[in-house]
Amino acid sequence: MLWNPILKKPLVNRPEERVRLRLIDYLIYEAGWPKSRIGLEVLAERGNEDQKGRVDVLCYDRKFNPVLLVECKAENVNLNLDTMIQAGSYNRSVDSDYVMVTNGVNDYIYKTTDPDTEVEELPVSWPEPAETAQTSRFDYWSERGFAGENTSPQLRRFLSEMLHRVFVDEIRDNPGNIVYLQPKVQSPDGSLQHYYRIIQFDDEWKVAMSMVASKHGSTRIVMLFKKNNKNAGLVELNPELHRKKVGPDTTLYLPDKTIPVHLFESITLPLNPRVASGSMDMIEPVIQYLNQQSLTHA
Fold first, then answer.
1. Chain centroid, CA 247 distance in Å
2. Cβ–Cβ under 8 Å, residues 147 and 219
3. Dihedral of the CA atoms 286, 287, 289, 291 (nearest 10)?
4. Count of Cβ atoms closer than 10 Å to residue 129 Cβ
5. Where is the domain boundary, 87, 122, 157?
6. Are 101 and 71 in contact (CB under 8 A)?
7. Average pLDDT by consecutive 10-residue portion of the chain (298 residues)?
8. Does residue 73 sit in helix, strand or coil?
9. What does pTM read for this prediction?
10. What range does the domain containing 159 cover?
């Protein structure tokens, strides 16, 4: 389930809803748009048709006049003329100054000169995340489900700095893809569904990397590995267990078995909160460990 901060209720985890929540997240936390002036599922007539529809997102100005109408589609849906016509047909009755269509990957924004006849496409230039949000803050990532609210103070700086490196700094030079994944692994600490960054490590290895809050409020580092396009396993690391020296700190979900291990000790991962670790700091030693395991069991 997904929590909708405007409707204040959980919604079914659907691709289109994830795109809408990402936009709401941007409007509230980065653009500073008040929640009280964001409407969802606003009833609207569809142009001259004898039909009614619902506007995904509608933003209002201080006098509660419509300013921005948004039509959201799933990431795998192409934005074509039919999408534009659908959004435009809603705006004939809403009369918003701007109309936007988005699938979370591509965005198109139009200024309406006349809701019945003319629109002007505007260039889209979103500010860099580092310029619009304090992405080195732990709370920034905790509010978005990447970090657990009960994470110990000793780890918060390390984890937030690492998230900033992986999802903000490194993207400028090595973008990769950021996609929503739903691993089939059933972790006892809760779902691993989240946004992951896809990283092509070398010619053999491809990695999907993220952090996910656990149901207990801790933070897990999660990596899915493919070797030569074949599933090589999922690694779920819990730095909190390593810090407390309580049992195995990592679970390896291999294609044929599940193994609890002390992986942090085995590969000497840097947990110094003063050192900002990046994706390669985590991925390279884990791949070395996985290669050693495959040789050991060959």
1. 30
2. yes
3. 170
4. 17
5. 122
6. yes
7. 67 84 85 90 75 89 93 89 87 90 88 63 52 70 89 89 84 71 90 90 92 92 93 91 84 89 68 59 82 60
8. coil
9. 0.73
10. 129-296
